[in-house]
Design goal:
single chain, about 80 residues, alpha+beta, 5 strands, globular
Amino acid sequence: MPQVRYFAGAAEAAGLEAESLPGASVGELFAAMTARHPALAEVLPRCSVLVGGVRTADHGVALADDQQVDVLPPFAGG
């Protein structure tokens, strides 16, 4: 299963910093994330998603079983 790492507000909404979830694509992973953590439904649309360290907004991107996915909400400050 893909390994998801949550940062800042996404970690707060999920209630944890990392977990493994099922998903063959980014879209399927998002569905699993919001099913397990409903508060993420409000946060995810504002987040940047990195798949293997590369930013993507395409929910059709395929995920490998051992794929690293990072969920980063907007950060304030400078």
